[in-house]
Amino acid sequence: MSLNGKDIKSLVQPDRVHRAAYVDPGLFELEMARLFGRAWLVLGHESQVKTPGDFFTTRMGREPVIVARHTDGSVQVLVNRCKHRGARVCEQATGNARQFVCAYHGWSYGTDGTLCVVPYPEAYERPVSEMRELGLAKVPRVDRYRGFIFASLAASGPSLLEFLGYARTSFDDLADRAPDGEIEVAGGVFKHVYRGNWKLVIENHLDLVHPVFVHASAIWAAKEQADVKGSPSSDIGIRQMRANGAPQEAWEAVGLWTGPYGHSYMGDYHSDRRLVAAFDDPAFAEYRAAMVRRLGEEATRRVLGVSRFNTIIYPNCSFMSQFRQLRIVQPLAVDRTVVYAYSYRLKGAPEQMFEDTVAFANVVNGTGSEVLTDDLEVYERIQQGLSSQVSDWVYLGRWYGRDVPDEHGLRRGQTGTSDLHYRNFFTTWLEYMTTED
Amino acid sequence: MPATTTRPPATLSRTEIEQFLYQEARLLDEGRLEEWLALFTDDATYWVPLEANQADPRTTVSIIYNDRRLLEVRVRQFRHPRAHARVPAPRTVHQVSNVLVLEDDGREARVASTLVMLEYRKERQRVWGGLVEHRLRRTDGGLRIAAKRVDLINSDSELDGIACLF
């Protein structure tokens, strides 16, 4: 397929999108350059690099990067590629280092990327201190919001605050729920892979028609289970599986909003008192008291009363502010994706809250979860089906033409089961994809 | 299954323990999941940790961490006609070896083994390898699994979904 702007524009129509957006390798390459190469991407949280020398490695699109806390306290995002012969200089997922030392010829870089050591330097015309351009490449823009680390591979573009817009309030929702006012990444990272396009998972996280179909088996199995007393962990798991079987009216009633740059979020659908702190189940009494001590009664009620489930920061971050889960979607190829799923601890909250988070993560994001594995299976079936060349179009027409504006400059779906977010993702996609450098 | 319906003797022979583990593997490989589930005690745990040397299933996430109740949900879910990740169901071969009795206090035996498992589904075969530890308890109904832990050698890697049992 040729890739001029006019051709790309023809792929996205008001209520449908061409299958090429999911299966065309050329478009995927263009996405890496124009979308993942420009947008602010969520890389992680500053609790992952608490002290100088702390680092973690991740990807921006397909760029391998190191996120490091430098000795001056700054957070640095460095391209993980030796400036000498090109080897990656850091192989660990996380750790603490004074320098990143290339395995090949021993070139060593500081945690701000500065080239520090070149062995046998007499062979070069300049001293190492003058070889400044041979430091690790820095990602052009790095910023933070509420402790979350963002970076952009583009030297210019909207500021982070402009980019996030009203969607920033979902990060507020996550951070505000900590009695000590701080959250931290904890409890391990799931990394689940599927053989499908990266967009499928992002779209699915706000698709409120799918749960009762995709998760029918888990909903049924959990509802059939006798309510004998089990561990708190299995209690949370079974409650969450059952929650996916909410009645159709509940899914319709859940709000769904989209805004500029593609960011979107949904309201919460839970009615289970044990899963939602705002419902004042006794299990949350100690937590609530800790919140009231810091914020007072009124502010606590306001913070806990925010009712959101998934928020998408387009293109590749999906998080659950209320349930302390954050997923970063890493495209590997047009038909292969890995999702990193992180859990967050609310500092100052009782330990049971974090154990609940872990139990919830096992069911919602676990590689062996009866819920998640059915999602992954469906993504793969979509990818396989879209290889068909007989039918070109994917339909996004649910509640089309019935979106309504809201007071924050967003658009709200007619109901929670609207395809509004799909349509807005592709409007945004088109903006990135048809803008030339 | 298991061979005896009376309380096993105070000291289990290695052969008896091996036979039990082989029988357990056979039930999984033949898809006799309800019979497999019946091997577990009411207070049993079935645990596939995410991290190497993971100390705690409550404060670190796990590929699978099921008490008896969640294990019942899992086996029931596997039987549902729309358990999509199991349509068709994976076929497995569990190869159990290197059986070592680590401890035996007369009530429970702690048994280590090595698992190599082939999983086949939809034109794809995966190889799994892991170190396994069972806590086997003598009960009036015979030997039962009080805990099973499977440490996969690639547990913390980027993994496709797992809809089979180890």
Notes on the protein architecture:
The complex is a heterodimer of chains A (437) and B (166). With 437 residues, chain A is α+β, with helices and mostly antiparallel strands. Chain A has helices at residues 5-9, 20-23, 25-34, 160-164, 168-176, 199-204, 211-214, 216-224, 232-243, 248-253, 285-295, 297-305, 351-364, 372-385, 420-433; strands at residues 12-13, 16-18, 41-45, 54-60, 63-69, 75-79, 94-96, 99-101, 108-110, 115-117, 141-145, 148-152, 183-194, 256-258, 264-267, 308-313, 317-320, 325-333, 336-346, 393-395, 404-405, 411-412. Chain A has a 9-stranded antiparallel sheet with strand order 13-19-18-17-16-15-14-22-21, with helices on both faces. In chain A, strands 6-5-4-7 form a 4-stranded antiparallel sheet, with no helix packed on it. In chain A, helix 8 (216-224) packs across helix 9 (232-243), helix 9 (232-243) crosses helix 13 and helix 11 packs across helix 12 (297-305). Chain A is globular. Chain B has 166 residues and is of the alpha+beta class. In chain B, 20% of the residues lie in helices and 44% in strands. Chain B has a 6-stranded mixed sheet with strand order 2-1-6-5-4-3. In chain B, strand 4 (108-121) and strand 5 (124-139) form a beta hairpin. The two termini of chain B are 19 Å apart. The model of chain B has no long low-confidence stretch (mean pLDDT 94). The chains are: A alpha+beta (437), B alpha+beta (166). The A-B interface holds A 186-195, 213-214, 216-218, 220-222, 224-225, 228, 230-231, 233-234, 237-238, 241, 338, 343, 351, 354-355, 358-359, 361-362, 365-368, 370, 372-374, 376-378, 381 and B 48, 50-51, 54, 57-70, 72-74, 76-77, 80-85, 156-163.
